[in-house]
Amino acid sequence: MLPLSYAPPLPPPQSRPNPTPSHKPKPQPCVLLFPAALRTAAAAAAISFSLLAGNAAAVAAVEQPPEICRGQDDGREVEVKAEAVTNEQLVEEAWEVVNEGFLPDAGSRPWSPELWMQRKQDILQGSIKSRSRAHDIITKMLASLGDPYTRFLSSSDFSKMSKYDMTGIGLNLREIPDDNGSLRLVVLGLILDGPAHSAGVRQGDELLSVNGIDVRGKSAFDVSSMLQGPKETFVTIKVKHDSCGPVESMKVQRQMAARTPIFYRLEKRDNENSSVGYIHIKEFNAVAKKDLVSALKRLQNSGASYFVLDLRDNLGGLVQAGIEIAKLFLNKGDTVIYTTGRDRQVQNTIVADSGPLVTTPVMVLVNNRTASASEIVASALHDNCKAVLVGERTFGKGLIQSVFELHDGSGIVVTVGKYVTPNHKDINGDGIEPDYRRLPDLNEARDYLSRCQSKKLS
């Protein structure tokens, strides 16, 4: 599964710099034996938040616990307080994350493992006398990369980020393959004292069903959407505690609900006999796919002959939501997006795993504030000859950030990869050029898509 990605707020459009999956951090450079609960990398479900005002971006993902039953822990693991981490170790920990995964061409300054090693040696020549000084050193060390998205997070900023909840009940799910090759959904992270935690869900529990529907084999994203609902309503879940514990059913009250970002209507265009289904997607969140499916079906049943998908001013949201929405329009096996980076966990080819929900022509409206996950959708539909792009060149935000927690509760955001379109175009910086500046008529769009298909097959 593509790890979810966090993308920090976009800079002003005129600067057009450089979206986001997170993955587990590399083994820590410190020699201390830290408890597993402290070794976290945010958003194992891949959350890319590129909203200008967004500050919450990812769910803190706790390392997978060992497969043991409750009560069988021998108690040897002793919790280590943040104070036990030396300032030098904290700086080296941040250095190591960059050393293992930073994407060199993301920064504006030369980078190589050799230059980065020299920087560590220069920094650690003397002692670092205070924690605030260590944080200052990390901040400057990351700034030296020349990448506006690789940066330090204070513990308060990391805490805000780590509590983003796309389920509405305060948990983060991870897909784990079992011995038979199918997927289990395991609770990777919990908001302490959140609804799921208060109801008795614990890290490492397997989620078996939601409102009586078996969820084994389903994606973490789809099940997270199933858990969503109106605030203060209840959802019934069944979990298996640890790998060999009891199965328990529980009712959990939702604490928050994602608002629908989907707005749609049926229109008649001048000089056309056919009806068009107009759909505006404001952002990509946990309910975007579900609500878009409903909109597409209702518009089709109402007589829509084709669709206009409006992604103007859509600055992104959940990367995985964008990927799942793109799949609704693609043929099975079509490439949605490529991700590249130094770390093999970042290198991925995401393809559609089923046929399209609609086969009628699609026009996608874009502008210079169409960014991140929106650009993934636009390029996937365009490069697979499923849609024509109309409007202005998109923003061009194609970098992937991972969020890592350091052992004192602070964190760092590091650019680890980038997105490449199905036609192998690097989104970052350049954006995507539309096919038309103004909305074409239906026949023009059909002719364009037909030529595109012929060229693709030749």
From TrEMBL:
Keyword Lipoprotein: no
Protein's name in the database: C-terminal processing peptidase
Keyword annotations: Hydrolase, Protease, Serine protease
Family to which this protein belongs: Belongs to the peptidase S41A family.
PROSITE patterns xrefs: PDZ
Biological-process GO terms, alphabetical: proteolysis
Organism for this UniProt entry: Triticum aestivum (Wheat)
Annotated Pro residues bias: 1-22
PANTHER family per the UniProt record, alphabetical: CARBOXYL-TERMINAL-PROCESSING PEPTIDASE 1, CHLOROPLASTIC, TAIL-SPECIFIC PROTEASE
Coiled-coil stretches noted in the UniProt entry, renumbered to this chain: none
Domain PDZ stretches: 158-228
Catalytic activity: The enzyme shows specific recognition of a C-terminal tripeptide, Xaa-Yaa-Zaa, in which Xaa is preferably Ala or Leu, Yaa is preferably Ala or Tyr, and Zaa is preferably Ala, but then cleaves at a variable distance from the C-terminus. A typical cleavage is -Ala-Ala-|-Arg-Ala-Ala-Lys-Glu-Asn-Tyr-Ala-Leu-Ala-Ala
